[in-house]
Design brief:
mainly beta
């Protein structure tokens, strides 16, 4: 399974951005993680492809929205009211499991990441 992210860029605080992740095959669940400079990779959100059940990290609740288009094999992350602390490389991940987890070890496949930079 290959994953390819896009949609990152340089934006100002308060702006919105939508990330995309196109997959080569359908899996059970998919998620978004991010890694800021000098920090560990952290969980953002996940979705079960079959029924659209979602889960969010506390930092993402209320501002980020994860969704999928099964026909297009595409995962989305809509980000609103971006803050400088959202600056990170955002990674798309996929798992063959139907369980929704925020643990990176749960995921079997990873994309290369897309950079999001939020200026103040």
């Amino acid at each position: 399974v290959s994953l390819e992210e896009s949609g990152g860029g340089l934006v100002q605080a308060g702006d919105s951005l939508r990330l995309l992740c196109v997959t080569s095959e359908r899996t059970g669940t998919m998620g978004w993680f991010r890694q800021a400079p000098g920090k560990e990779r952290t969980y953002v959100a996940a979705i079960r492809l079959r029924d659209g059940t979602t889960d969010y990290a506390d930092s993402a609740k209320g501002r980020f929205s994860i969704s999928r288009d099964i026909a297009k094999r595409t995962l989305y992350l809509q980000m609103r009211n971006l803050k400088p602390e959202d600056t990170a490389v955002y990674y798309c991940a996929a798992s063959n499991s139907l369980l929704i987890r925020g643990d990176s070890t749960h995921y079997d496949y990873w994309g290369q990441g897309t950079q999001v930079t939020v200026s103040s």
